[in-house]
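Run log // design_07
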């Protein structure tokens, strides 16, 4: 079967299966959020409301951590927004592939967007340029249909079980493992690697800032460094031609 002949149903189920390995990370990651949210003082309804409305684990953890540190609500919201700005970059990267979809479909896709689905979808779109526009949309929804129910359900499970989960289970391993698994395959060029290195060093250098503001500073520095590295490479190539 070639990618040009792929039907919507085939593309949907392929996306479903391609995202399946991430369930091993999503389950403990979402359960951990449920546990942490209850420990932070949220009830089950508040925990689920945050998970369903935001559906962005990194920003949810960031907001909770800052609120636990007695940071002002404005700072918590600003930090969560800064963490979630990556979604704007994700959207821009997806426009050439699924930007043709109807407005209502794109709104639903933007709500459902998570790191795992984006990483898998973009990688597939680049490797399979013969996919039809309709197949690309179906593939994306196939990725999301698998991830989102597990995120909602396991968040609820973590919120209900709470402290009944033994600390020896160490669910917090899922956070770094998830982002390593997502980021590593996307480091395909020198500017990407340079930006990742700079962000790591900057996060350590500015760790002393209150309310985790060092992460925001590190993100801004890394984006600037990556852009400058890409500009330098482009000028170097132009000078050689």
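design_07 sequence
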């Amino acid at each position: 079967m070639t990618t040009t002949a792929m039907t919507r149903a085939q593309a949907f189920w392929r996306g479903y299966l391609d995202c399946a390995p991430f369930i091993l990370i999503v389950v403990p990651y979402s359960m951990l959020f449920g546990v942490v949210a209850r420990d932070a003082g949220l009830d089950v309804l508040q925990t689920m409301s945050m998970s369903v409305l935001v559906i962005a684990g990194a920003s949810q953890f960031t907001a909770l951590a800052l609120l636990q540190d007695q940071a002002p609500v404005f700072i918590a919201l600003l930090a969560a927004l800064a963490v979630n700005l990556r979604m704007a970059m994700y959207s821009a990267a997806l426009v050439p592939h699924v930007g043709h979809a109807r407005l209502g479909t794109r709104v639903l896709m933007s709500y459902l967007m998570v790191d795992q689905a984006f990483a898998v979808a973009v990688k597939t779109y680049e490797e399979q340029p013969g996919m039809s526009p309709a197949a690309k949309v179906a593939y994306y929804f196939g990725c999301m249909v698998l991830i989102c129910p597990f995120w909602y359900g396991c968040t609820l499970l973590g919120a209900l079980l709470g402290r009944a989960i033994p600390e020896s289970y160490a669910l917090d391993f899922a956070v770094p493992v998830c982002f390593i698994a997502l980021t590593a395959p996307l480091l395909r060029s020198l500017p990407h690697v340079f930006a990742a290195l700079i962000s790591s060093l900057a996060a350590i250098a500015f760790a002393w800032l209150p309310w985790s503001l060092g992460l925001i500073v590190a993100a801004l520095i890394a984006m600037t460094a990556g852009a400058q590295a890409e500009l330098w490479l482009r000028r170097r190539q132009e000078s050689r031609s």
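The longest helix spans residues 133-161.
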